[in-house]
Amino acid sequence: xxxxxxxxxxxxxxxxxxxxxxxxxxxxxxxxxxxxxxxxxxxxxxxxxxxxxxxxxxxxxxxxxxxxxxxxxxxxxxxxxxxxxxxxxxxxxxxxxxxxxxxxxxxxxxxxxxxxxxxxxxxxxxxxxxxxxxxxxxxxxxxxxxxxxxxxxxxxxxxxxxxxxxxxxxxxxxxxxxxxxxxxxxxxxxxxxxxxxxxxxxxxxxxxxxxxxxxxxxxxxxxxxxxxxxxxxxxxxxxxxxxxxxxxxxxxxxxxxxxxxxxxxxxxxxxxxxxxxxxxxxxxxxxxxxxxxxxxxxxxxxxxxxxxxxxxxxxxxxxxxxxxxxxxxxxxxxxxxxxxxxxxxxxxxxxxxxxxxxxxxxxxxxxxxxxxxxxxxxxxxxxxxxxxxxxxxxxxxxxxxxxxxxxxxxxxxxxxxxxxxxxxxxxxxxxxxxxxxxxxxxxxxxxxxxxx
Length: 452
What we know:
Elements: E1 24-32, H1 44-57, E2 61-70, H2 81-93, E3 98-101, H3 107-117, E4 120-123, H4 124-135, H5 139-154, H6 177-216, E5 221-226, H7 232-240, E6 257-262, E7 268-273, H8 283-288, H9 294-297, E8 301-307, H10 313-326, E9 337-342, H11 349-362, E10 368-370, H12 379-392, E11 394-402, H13 406-415, E12 417-423, E13 427-435, H14 436-450
Parallel strand pairs: 1-2, 1-3, 3-4, 5-7, 5-8, 8-9, 9-10
Antiparallel strand pairs: 6-7, 11-13, 12-13
Helix pairs in contact: 1-4, 4-5, 5-6, 13-14
């Protein structure tokens, strides 16, 4: 799916694109006065800064930004007619071509604002969809973005045909040309959505087969998760010596990447880099990218990468936890997750001391480590913590392995700690310390080996 550059007409994607020159852009964050400053909420200014960063991620030139406190949402224009008229002057004076509203804007509100300002208007969901549409590289990623965009756009088709006749004609039971075109587009989009879901289901089955194949290798799986632009890809490159694209931009990584790493104990593991999370992620994308996030649900260990230098790092942490809970991983937040407190190269000594005190007070020091993915500081400690976490759930089991199964015996020595071995005529009797995940993999291997 291409991000179309032509903003003078409405496409089925409502596209905002990135070809030079950058379009002048207005970014607004409207908020209810009664909801501002609540516990765990970002400040309006922080939300505005994030929205401006999202606009900059697709190279829009933010020439004006503002927070707009409102008493209540207005059905026709969201922010009130007086504000609409005053902003219309700014739009005209600065020749703004795109207005980004960091909120949910209905199709009617979007249409009215575009008429008043004579420029393109997109809301937070539309902006995030544009970024995903531009950044997705894999076939599956493009399909998922297209599915999300079409699901979002289906309810907004009425905006595309305001120039067509609305009056009923003919014999009284046929719609005018506008109605006919709308119905045709709805049907075409509905058919395409069905086809996309079918293709994505097929790709999901293929990825499940690949995941099962990795289990037969098998190595423990580690998933890097975190808020967008927390430095996951840079840390992924540092730990795996990969060459994944990484930049100081929101949503730089959309397609999951998997690499093999070697832990300090010599044990091998599979490390995966995943799409970044964000607050108020469009529901269409949550559903479309659930398959991509299966890498997280199947991981033996989750490493939550946090941007320690960000002023809203605690709020970002809460957002990531919310997404993980939505994925059914709430129990893993206490057990099976460690934190990589990234970007310590960007904080001063006073902040570092405050962090250490807070971590000690919260009792979280044993499950987190401060790192810099750029300089490599703390990465050795992170690998050691990962190694210890994967080894910490090991249990002692008694196993009987046929003497003819040399590959199985070698696998146990490679992935477990063999404490005792007694060889019999037909089988070797072993006492092995294995992680629960590896024990499950070995028993699954035994079933396949026996042909059951």
